[in-house]
Amino acid sequence: MALESNIPSGPLAQKWDKHKFELKLVNPANKRKFEVIVVGSGLAGASAAATLGELGYKVKCFCYQDSPRRAHSIAAQGGINAAKNYQNDGDSVHRLFYDTIKGGDFRAREANVHRLAQVSVNIIDQCVAQGVPFAREYGGLLSNRSFGGAQVSRTFYARGQTGQQLLLGAYQALSRQIGMGTVKMYPRTEMVDVVVVDGHAKGIVVRDLVSGEISSHAADAVVLATGGYGNVFFLSTNAKGCNVTSIWRAYKKGAYLANPCYTQIHPTCIPVSGDHQSKLTLMSESLRNDGRVWVPKRKEDCTKAPGSIAEDDRDYYLERKYPSYGNLAPRDISSRAAKEACDSGRGVGPGALGVYLDFSAAIKRLSLNVIRERYGNLFDMYEKITGENAYQVPMRIYPAVHYTMGGSWVDYNLMSSLPGLFVVGEANFSDHGANRLGASALMQGLADGYFVLPYTIGNYFATCKQTRPATSHTEFKKVEEDVRKFTERLLSVKGKRTPTSLHRELGKLLWEKCGMARNEKGLKEALKRIPELREEFWKTVNVTGEAMEFNQALEYAGRVADFMEFGELMCLDALERNESCGGHFREEFQTPDGEAARNDDKYAYVAAWEYQGAGKAPVMHKESLEYSEVHMSTRSYK
Amino acid sequence: MNLTLKVWRQKNGQTEGHFETYPARDIIEDMSFLEMLDVVNEGLISSGKDPIAFDSDCREGICGMCSLVINGIPHGGHAGTATCQLHMRRFKDGETITIEPWRAKAFPIIKDVATNRSAFDRIIQAGGFVSVNTGGTPDGNALPISKEVSDRAMDAAACIGCGACVAACKNASAMLFVAAKVSHLNLLPQGEPEKHRRALAMVTQMDKEGFGSCTVTGSCEAVCPKEIKLTFIAKLNRDFGVAALLGK
Ligand SMILES: Cc1cc2nc3c(=O)[nH]c(=O)nc-3n(C[C@H](O)[C@H](O)[C@H](O)COP(=O)(O)OP(=O)(O)OC[C@H]3O[C@@H](n4cnc5c(N)ncnc54)[C@H](O)[C@@H]3O)c2cc1C
Asked: Is A71 in the pocket of ligand 1 (CB under 6 A)?
């Protein structure tokens, strides 16, 4: 199938308004005849489910946690962008649009990004109305901070708990609809497959994680809002349960996966402390507003106490290399610079895999209290994990997998290549190109859920004349049977290795070969090794317990099985993209001073992969990226 | 270090539970409590035994999913610390640690130390929101809110809904949880119009769920990983009292 991005015609700034007018509407009385399944209750899912419920649709919402309030959006710390220009510092919709396109290294779809910047302002209004306690100035107005990749202050925040407060806002709106009966919530329920009838997504099959029961749900459309797949690397800043399952299984049913190799490695995370580690913890990028990043100039100094190293012997490498953005250089660039510093033998802390993030200058300039007020909870968290007091000694940080720009391919209407299947939030490939700017994921999730999908899905209902099948339809029965077989297969191996040990091995391989820097040789090695590892998985995995019970080992093993397949596609995508752009850094393609070298003539496209069946090579479709309003320049933050 | 764990094992909600003892060997100080349990579970799986079922997700102390009573205290008793942020450097080599689930009628056990806390969701569904639909809201800066008020609302809004307050209370009362949400919204001008209705509806639902009554002993505040203050209960009592008087 050819890729049809369905970008409306007309001038960029008017596309969305024009499109909204042209979209077909569903009459209010007819809305309740349509049923929608929303998988996921993070910012994207909860906002979509609540809004669809308010509009009058019949909604079912699913999540794997015990409550929709616990989706991983809750963990976002730093903030959410919006082009409000409340600071009068020259921000505008166009500037946010431009920063996002440039931040994404000219690999995002122009029309989507412009729409995102446009609706960003509505998001703040919506959240304030819901009672989200954003930080305020003494005059009572909203406060802003700066984030990487921007020279204006457009980031709204709620202490270091912005994601939590935004999610609670969306969760409250969702809860209101649940109470009113327009949305039915299914917590501790995992979607395990999509059901396609006559070429359209018409339902899902789920496993009740408490009883183990497999059941079907039919709908007029299915929305996936299942978040990112950073956990393919085993260690990431994602929650333990984050997975690729829903979009992977949808891929096998016809929903193309786009740009799977675009991974964001966040520069400011707490370094790995040992093999026991189950996850990595982010220290919000907002810290780079006041913290200065450095390593010793000389290798010999790396083991000395940081306080004993003289100013002149420190290399504030971000300030040195990128004087106009300094410590607020974008994430991909900052991460690579940290890797470079450590690769040159100047890393600090255990394993020499760390750099300093130093607040002493800011404490002197602003006082300890101001720093405590701004970042207190982050300093507390740092102390809990490392046992060190960052008011006294600099933090040690190192890059870690954080976000996945890749995901299901969607058109301008957020519909995937499988008709009737919509994908929102981090799960789609969306708006961030090859690198996402800080504080833009929360914005995108809420834009998709509150302000985009509710319009575009209506058009699908109004124009698609397909009826909703009953769950007794043979297709549902067949998929249920497949799911049962898959579960039985996992339980029947009874080998010697735990799912964790296999997952850890896959993650390590991907981190080495498809992490912060990639090259042809390494990717080819990974492509050889992953199928072997997958085979080992199916021969040696030991999944304890039974199918019909609360079985966390089984749950987890299913997710690992999908990662084992997905990792291969990721490496394939990275191998095919013979250029460096954003988070995808191919060592063969760099400028003389070590920056990413794009190849716009050949690679200014979205790579959307189509599944061809088990054991067959997937087919890549290209959506070429055309820019009408921006010039594809070389990204510079110097 | 080496430890001994006494862990509550219970196959499901229909069966009786009991303690089992497991050794936890070669534990490193830098591990989190849950990473220590991961290590124990890896050992159990390798010897063909059923791993201990426990809830966790973000492991950053913010999602509220983790929930263990450690040595008799929900989340283990270190100020402002959820179980997932509790690190093994807090324990001593050779120590015996007991691990139990939240115990409350309104939080039935699912398996081992994992419980069902949906009662909290139903309390929010009863009134823990501002009744605005998507769209048509005024500009974010149209309504100035003093920093003090906004900060206090944020103090209350920091609740992660973990349920430790209930687990710590001898009556299994959910007052601190309800008070936090009511205070967050009722302190703000956006929440003002529904202030009384909200307090009444949420307290009524709380009672219906089988949570016990509050005698203000403060055990909830002591274990709250977000250090939510008892004073919010006073605020809830006031709003509820006025609402009851007004017969809303
Ligand atoms: C530590 C951290 C800090 C961050 N800080 C920021 C920040 O400051 N600013 C910013 O803009 N972005 C930030 N991000 C990124 C941002 O938080 C996420 O990209 C965003 O919240 C994702 O939202 P979502 O709704 O798409 O997915 P999620 O919030 O991850 O929600 C996924 C939902 O899908 C459900 N689900 C998943 N799989 C299944 C399945 N198979 N069956 C059923 N349900 C399923 C889950 O239960 C959950 O409800 C941060 C990310 C992390 C990890």
From this structure: yes
